[in-house]
Amino acid sequence: MRLPCLFLFLIYFKHGTYVSCRFYPSSQLMNSEIHMEHDAYRESLFTNRFIKHQILKSKIGHIQSQACFKVRQLGSSVQQREIYQLTIGTGKIQVMLWSQMHGDEPTGTLAFFDLFNFFAADDQHNAFRKRILDNCTLHFIPMLNPDGAEVHQRRNAQGIDINRDFLKQQSTEARLLAGLQQNIQPEFGFNMHDQDTLWSVSGSKKPATISLLAPPADDEASITPGRLKAMLLTAGIYQVFKKQIPGCIGRWSEEYEARAFGDNFQRLGTSTVLIEAGGYPGDFEKQYARKLTFDILLYALNQISTQQYAKQQLSQYHQIPFNHKELFHLLIKNCQINNDDSNFTADIGLNYTEIIDLEHHKHKKIYTVADFGDLSTWNAYDVFDADGWAMATSLSIGEKPTLKIVDTQGNILVMDQGVMV
Ligand SMILES: [Zn+2]
């Protein structure tokens, strides 16, 4: 249903200020217990979110020559791209980590390659990495859905959502993942995803930069022995990382999804943790989320190798706030709206969608009006406080606005049919 239009004419701001909404200082958000420097291990081949199979394959070719890794081709995607399994460590605890079963969700893959660099290094952290590798055997499946990654889409080349294909296993990628779990029978699993940047954390109204979940194993969300371990591990992650990004860690929905892998692996006894990388102010390329993911995985693997996770309290898991949607990409506050019928003040919430040109590695944001009126209970990545001055061409929900805002300090917000110029 189309909502009533607001007729705005010329936007003119008297005291408006364009405020880039930075919730947190840029800081060295290192895990206080492990103090690893992510930059030292960041895989330099991967600089943005649009990682493709060809470059991943070239990096794996290099890794293959390193003695500490066992690399094998697990199988092939529908379009015959290689899907790899990388194994490292000699410990008794089997851990399986897989990423990018949704092709447009690459953050886990990026963090995996940073972890590979970490585990291959020989430096002052040798004792730390040795403890993990002596106690655990880590099985990584980076980029389970290379065909989807190639065109930056969620689904595989058949159009199947792999994470809704556990029961029928009509996709070759789902069969590979299910088969590996069956062969290894891992004690722990890490299921890596990216989530919509519009998810916020209930209570804080900040972006859900990381969402965690110990997926349910049944409709009743029973606390099975395996799920209990995943819940305790998740509780530990939350307790440590909530201090580093306060208000930015949420919990994904606990609704049971009978077709999903995480829920089924939990049911099969693999203590599975879902990690969803979300938005963060200024982190359009997800590089900060990548670093957080790296830190979280190292923390979790250390907890597993030392069995420290078992000392966490279950109540701490239940303290993790759920995800919510109280966030826009851009919020123009306190606009004075003058049209033929009335004069009033309104806030305007705008969200963007991305237009991606994979061939030329370009992408642009198209903003549309998501809501207007009293949006004082909402937050945004960027807030422009119009301070009572506004006017523009007609606006309506879903419209790509054309507007120009200037404040007395000379800050200008110009948008042409939804494109910031
Ligand atoms: Zn996903």
UniProtKB/TrEMBL annotation:
GO terms under biological process: proteolysis
Tree of life domain: Bacteria
Peptidase M14 domain ranges (all copies): 49-304
List of catalytic residues: 257
Cellular component GO terms, alphabetical: extracellular space
Keyword Nucleotidyltransferase carried by entry: no
PROSITE patterns linked: PEPTIDASE_M14
Keyword line: Carboxypeptidase, Hydrolase, Metalloprotease, Protease, Zinc
UniProt keyword annotation of Protease present: yes
Listed cofactors: Zn(2+)
GO terms assigned for molecular function: metallocarboxypeptidase activity; zinc ion binding
Protein family: Belongs to the peptidase M14 family.
PANTHER family found in the cross-reference section: PROTEASE FAMILY M14 CARBOXYPEPTIDASE A,B (PTHR11705), SLL0236 PROTEIN (PTHR11705:SF143)
Name under which the protein is recorded: Peptidase M14 carboxypeptidase A
